[in-house]
Design brief:
This protein is α/β, with parallel strands linked by helices. The protein folds into 2 domains: 54-158 and 283-307, Rossmann fold; 159-279 and 312-369, Response regulator (Rossmann fold), CATH 3.40.50. The chain has helices spanning 3-29, 69-84, 100-111, 125-134, 159-173, 188-202, 221-233, 247-254, 283-295, 323-338, 365-369; strands at residues 54-59, 88-93, 116-119, 139-143, 152-157, 178-183, 209-214, 238-241, 258-263, 274-280, 302-305, 312-315, 348-349, 355-357. The strands form 3 sheets. It has a 6-stranded parallel β-sheet with strand order 2-1-3-4-5-11, with helices on both faces. The protein has a 6-stranded mixed β-sheet with strand order 7-6-8-9-10-12, with helices on both faces. It is globular and about 75 Å long.
Amino acid sequence: MTDHSKRRWLRLASVACVAASAAFVAGCGKKEEPPKPTASAPAAASAPAKPEPLKAAWVYVGPVGDAGWTFAHDQGRKAVEAEFGDKVKTTFVEKVPEGADAERVFRDLAAQGNKIIFATSFGFMEPMLKVAAEFPDVKFEHATGYKTLPNMRVYDARFYHDAYISGIIAGGMTKTNTLGFVATFPIPEVLRNINAYTLGAQSVNPKVKTKVVWVSTWFDPPKEGDAAQTLINQGADVLLQNTDSSAVLQTAEKNGKYAFGWDSDMSAVAPKAHLASNVVYWGPYYKKAIKDVLDGTWKTERTIWGKPEGANDVIKINPVVPEAVRKKVEEAAAGLKAGTLSPFMGPIVDSTGKERLAKGVMADQDWKDKVDFYVRGVEGKIPSGK
């Protein structure tokens, strides 16, 4: 390459370098601006999580369609659903035998997350006590019992109020002066009802006597019907029962006799035989129990409601009942509601002639809890044990 060519090449290269340097400087000297933040919609406020419903379970000794005891409890469960809506989720298990089966059912319901469990038969007491001790965070409620734990309480109704009033009606309607009673187990609850029925009848008809047939079951319609027939064959013309079906009432109608509904309104079952129905309203108590849990105010206690609290009543008295007898019923009902009258007001003498309550003394709850006798006028012997 000639000197002239070299000089020309160097000049061109120099110009290119200067241009490149200028471009580099310009590029390097340009201030880099940070990217502008992208506008975003404000985050929506998250709604508070909806609390899980309280899970509550009922355990029944009979079927919900028994028209009596279990039906009445299930009406109470439905009252809870109507009152609390989606705050509570209820379930039930029916036809649970008293004993080991009940223990298994209680344990299973507690394991499923139920926070309150209701046991609706006296014979569920011992199984529930055992399971309650295993699940201290679950509330347990036992109907008609008397044993408690820190997480187990009991509730009851004064059925003997209604039995006494039914006795007044029976005493005014009997032609044979013989009443009949179909009984379940020889526990204070049942004996109180037999005695109150008899004492109510004797308050208007001192000649009355009561015959009893024990069936050793809460729900067995054929057995209940057979017992009713036996009583009728023995001369009883007005019957009451402490069993759960309408079999006694139906048997009375077949024989042209009278009887009562028990636990629920049975007026439509046998309208000719039906003198009145002894009903119990569990809804008010069940709503209170659920509210106690939801409010955090649940505590161990024993609740026994009756006429003063509107927990039970005698309804749909048959028009065949004379007006004079109705008047006696109204007076007795008013006294029971006011607390001025008790079916168990002394003197009370048992069937052997022994005084069990002194004259002028009104029985307290401790006395009622220990009733293990027939009052004067009830015939036969009390079977031993359950």
